[in-house]
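dumping this here before i forget
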Amino acid sequence: MLWWIGASGGCIGVLTENNLGVDAPASNDPDTSSWSRALHFWRSPADQPAWARPALLCIAALAGLAYAWRLDQAYLEAFYGGAARSMSLNLHNFFFGAADPWGTVSVDKIPGALWIQALSIRIFGFHVWSMILPQVVEGILTVLVLYRAVRRVAGAGAGLVAALVLAGSPVVILLDRGNIADTLLILLLVLAADATIRACQTGQLRSLLWAGVLVGFAFQAKMLQAWLVVPALFLAYLVAAPVASFLRRVWHLIAAGVALLVVSLSWMSAVSLVPQSSRPYADGSCNNSLFTQVFSYNGFGRLSYSLGGLGDGCSRTSAWLLTSRSTSVNEGVGTFGIAPSWDRLLSGPFGRDAAWLLLPAVVSALWLFFLDRRAPRTDLRRAAVMLWSVWLILTFLFFTSGHFLNSYYLAALIPPVAALCGMGAWEAWQRRRLPAVRAALAVLAVATVAITVALVPGYVGVRPFVVGSAVVVGLAAVVVLVNSLRKGHDSSRALMLGPILAGLAMLLGSFWASGVVVSEGLSPFDSPYEPSTVSTYYHQVAADFPATQQKLGRNASTVPPERAVNVFETTQKAGDYIMATGREYLPVGGFGGATPSTTLPTFEHLVAEQRVRRVTVVTQPMTSEPDLRWVVQHCTDLGLTSYDKESHATSTMFDCLPSDAPAS
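structure:
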C-alpha cells in the first residue's frame, strides 16, 4: 500500500510545485538539443502551465501501474472470457457476439466491449494479460480525457485533481483489473461529457452530434446504462449553449438524440435482419430477439427480482444457476444479497468501493452552484457542474433501486465525483485567503476523515494504521487552518500548508483502499477490506487457472475437433471450459438456463451426427431443461458424479453414443 501513497504524493508534489514558487522552464522556450527534443513529450502545450503535463503523465503512469499490477495473475470472469475467446475464432462469431465456438447462442449482452478483447486475443493470442490489456488502456485514457474535460472549464489544476481522484479510486482500479465491459462504457461516457462541454463552449452542432454518437457507442458496450447520462448532457447544453434561440438549441438536441438512437440501435437492427437460423440465438430472450435481450432482460428486468429472462415466460429453469444464486445470497458472498435502499451505497462493500469522496463532491457542487448563481446563462463552469451533478444523482438513484448490483458497477459514479472534487478543490485553493473557505475546509476534512473511520471495518488488521494516519493528517490540517484564522497567523506558508493537508486527509481513505486493492490483487467482484471468505474464492480460481487450463486442454485434445468436448447447463458453467481451451462445450439454456437454446430437435440431431456425446447433467436437484432430461432418458449413465461446492449441486456424466454408431 505504501507505494501508492508515496507515488501519489509525488504527483501531488508536481501539481503544487508551481505554487511553491519553483517554476519549470516555459513550455515554449526554444531548445534545439537532442535531449530536450526527446523529452518534448513531457512539456506542456503553450496554453497550459509548465507543470501540467508532467503531473498528468505522472498520474496516468500511476493509474496504469495500478491497473496492470500482476495482470498476468488477474481473475477473469469466465462467461465473458469464454465469449471473447469464441469471438476471436472467426468473423461470424466476432460480429454476432457468439458465446461458444459453434455460435449456437450469443453472449447475453451487446458485445461492443468484447470486440476489443477478442481483437486483443486475435493479435496476441489467448493469455490472461491479453484479456486485461484493453481495460488497462481504456482506464488510462479515461484519466486523460477527464483531465481535458475538467481543464476546459476550471483550468489545469482542477483537471489534475480530478485525474488524481479518478486514478486513486478503489472501485475504478478494481474494474480496470478485470475483463468487464464497464471500463469501455465509462471511457466513452467521459468522452461524451467532454464533447458536450465543448458544445456548450462553442455552440457548434457537430460537437453535440459527436457526443450523441459517443453515447451510442457506449450503448454498444453496456446498453441502457449508457443512456442514464443523456439527461445530464442534454440539460447542460439546453441551459448553457451560446445559441440565442431556445428553439434552435432544442433542434440541436433533437438532432443529437437522433444520432444517439441511430448509433445505439444500429447493430441490433442489422443483426435482427439476419435470418435466425444464420446467427446465434439471442441469449436472455424467449423469442430470439435482441430487443428483448436489451430492453427486458438487461433493462427493466434489472429493476425487479425476475432477472429479466428468468421470469419472462420461458419454460426452462436452470437448477444449477438458481441453486448457485440462492447459496451465494444465503452465505453473504458477493453483493447480490444486499437489498435496495437509499443508503446501501454509503456503507458495507458498496461504501468501501465508492463512498470515500461522495461528501466532498456534493459539497463542491453546492458551493460552485452558489458561486455561479449570478453568472450569465452561458457560464461554462456552471454548465459543467450541472452536467456532472445530474450524472451523479441519476446514477446514484439507479444503483440504490436496482437489484443484482455488482461492486464494479459503482465505478460509473467516480467520473462525476472526481470532476466535482477537482473543480471544488481548485476553487478553494484559489480562494484560500478567505477565512470562510479555510474554516469550511477544516470542517469538511473532519467530516471526510469521520467517513473514512466509519468505512474501514473493525476486523481489518491495518485499521489502526489507516485510521490513525487519516486522523493525524486531518488533525494537523485542522490545527493549521484554525490557527491561520487568527490575526497575524495567516502567513503564506500556513495558507499553503493548511489546504494541502486538508486535501490529503480527504484523499487518504480512498488511497489506502486503493493500495489494498493493488497489493492484495483484488478482482472486479471484490471490495476493499472485504472478509477473506469472499476474496479467497477469486484468488484461488486465478491461481489455479494455469494448471486448470493445461488439464482441460489435455482432456479436450482427446476429443475430435468436430465434436463438443462436453455439454453443460447454462453458458455460465460452460464459459470456464471454453475460455480455458477455445473448444466447444455446448451450452444449453443460455446464461440463466431459461433461454430455449438449443431446441430439443436440434439437440437430437447433434447427437445423431455424433457431434454431441458426453453430457454433464445436474441430477440433484434434477434439471427441468428439456435437452438434458432427454439425455437422462436416452443416454448411458457412466456412473461419474461430481459435487459443485459453489452451487451445492450434484452432476452426473452421460454418454450419448447412438446404439448403431461405432465406438471411438
